[in-house]
């Protein structure tokens, strides 16, 4: 009765079946089966064995029902939960919830739409919050290995749960030699009973099924922890990179290396580190058991070899930095005819990286050889030492001792004067939005002062243009307004919180174009109730994006991917970033040379629609600060014009005139596409959506084709050696 009540309560209030009930039913079912068998063999009355048999049948049915998923019976948004979240402990222990995915992959090529949603505890947002809270409590000054300690604190619950299946695995592993000894003794004894043999069969089933389940559950928990760590570490690195003031990070490719290669290496180390305590226990138990059976001559200690991993990672980071720089300036590279030069440079760096990696790989080969050679000779040497001592070696002791030796093969593998920026809400429209007086500015605490004695004010609803050559400090001035530069010997006030900022080196979240324009700082889709359709259409028109979206097969649903092959030009990416800033409806907009990547016609159109007298931003009474390196003589609607030279800001009075008086020839003209239609065709063909890419990659290739491909390039001999080595008999 209690079992039925518990099952009903858990079914009503939980998205998955009761784990406690399933474990109870499984364990009691095992004992009931043994007891029922005994009763049928020894009990004369059939009533009691029949009742126990009925009890076993009912418990078996309950275990089967508790193993089924509840996803079909859930209501509301609970139906969208992933199968892993709604599966019971038996389902998760045997990984049955993956069968549907495997079946889909067997019948067709898997796409992202076929994958289930991620389990809630594995989402990066949650794991990043856990790790950030633990990191905020770190010791100051930071101690050695501070990061691993804080990660352990953040995920202590997950790490603690991993101990349980690992201890079970240790127990089942060391049960094998005793099982072998018992089987051999039973075979040698002519008076052995059949019931004892049946018991040994049951023990064999229990031990090896227990090993498989313990290993599966432990590996599942381990890889869940690795996923949680990867999400937390990458998110923390990404968040930290967003807070680094612009210009202070000399090599931005270091961030990419940290989030990819270095995180992967840390994860590999975490696996070994997490196995350390378990391997220590196993080695200790194994040595004691070997010493008790064969004496001290069976104990052997070997050394390990280090690697050249850091040299390899440094070479990889150099290649990534060069590749990223080339992709950032791909238009300049093509215009100057340096494509082949850069290709050869990247190829040389790749070859250099491969040579550096070879040293590390060879160290791994030597380490594996030294590790495996003793274990290949260990059984024979162990028995030679034992027999040399004049001891008798019988089959029972030989096979059980070899079991101890074989189980060991898997254990021994393993600045205080900074002027603060004052933000406030304003009630008096006469208060300037931005006010700087006698301000000295440096990009970072360790950098030299690049702007001296800066004095300027920005009234509410005005358009301010700051012109200066490349490297004059324009971006540093904008970062000072944002509070991301070091301001000294003066005062600075900004009366508008959370301005919109368009950097020259743009940043966009991965996702669709619409999500990038309307969304926040994540790649999550924009909810319909938070989507302003009319405002969105106005923004697309103002930023001259409509014609570009019409050329894309998926329109604004085209996904943005950072790197080659995303199908969007640099000018299009800059206009999307500008549209994102305008869509946010901020009262203060900072534009860092945002029009430099646009052709003359597009540039004139956007300026007229956004910054003209009747422009969108002007009618919204927005305050705009635009910095540019171009020789802009004057904009008709500009209120103030400043020029940066020699580290100082000089004000000039605007003069009436054309929009662009002295602008040099633009490298890419819009009219060129009209004069040369084939260029427009090529540009349109270059805009390939993800769906078209996937359709183009579809091919009839099963698992056998993949294995044939690798075998052909590895060599059939090497492939067969690897296959036989990985599938050798453990006995």
What does this entry look like structurally?
By secondary structure, this protein is an alpha/beta fold. It has 4 domains: 2-117; 257-414, ABC transporter type 1, transmembrane domain (ABC transporter transmembrane region fold); 422-686, Rossmann fold (3-Layer(aba) Sandwich); 700-726, no CATH class. The protein is built from 27 helices and 13 strands. It has helices at residues 2-13, 19-42, 47-67, 83-86, 89-93, 99-107, 124-136, 146-154, 156-188, 194-243, 253-294, 309-328, 330-335, 339-388, 395-407, 474-482, 513-518, 533-542, 546-551, 570-583, 600-611, 616-619, 670-675, 677-686, 690-697, 703-714, 716-726; strands spanning 422-423, 434-442, 451-458, 463-467, 486-488, 491-494, 500-502, 511-512, 559-560, 588-592, 623-628, 640-645, 648-652. The strands form 3 sheets. Strands 7-10-11-4-12-13 form a 6-stranded mixed β-sheet, with helices on both faces. A hairpin with an 8-residue loop joins β2 (434-442) and β3 (451-458). α7 (124-136) crosses α10 and α14 packs antiparallel against α15. The longest helix has 50 residues, at 194-243. The protein is elongated, with a radius of gyration of 35 Å. The two termini are 47 Å apart.
The total domain count is 4
Instruction: Indicate the percent of residues in helices.
Output: 55-70%
Write down the oligomeric state: single chain
Name of the CATH architecture of the largest domain:
3-Layer(aba) Sandwich
Uncertain segments are: 296-307, 407-429, 657-701
Q: Report how far apart the termini are.
A: 47 Å
Structural class: alpha/beta
CATH uppermost class of the largest domain: Alpha Beta
Strand percentage lies at 5-15%
The main sheet orders its strands as 7-10-11-4-12-13
Query: Mean pLDDT, as a whole number?
Result: 74
According to CATH, the fold-level topology of the largest domain is: Rossmann fold
Radius of gyration: 35 Å
Task: Say how many strands there are.
Answer: 13
Name the CATH superfamily assignment of the largest domain: P-loop containing nucleotide triphosphate hydrolases
Largest sheet: 6 strands, mixed
Overall outline: elongated
Question: How many H/I helical runs?
Answer: 27
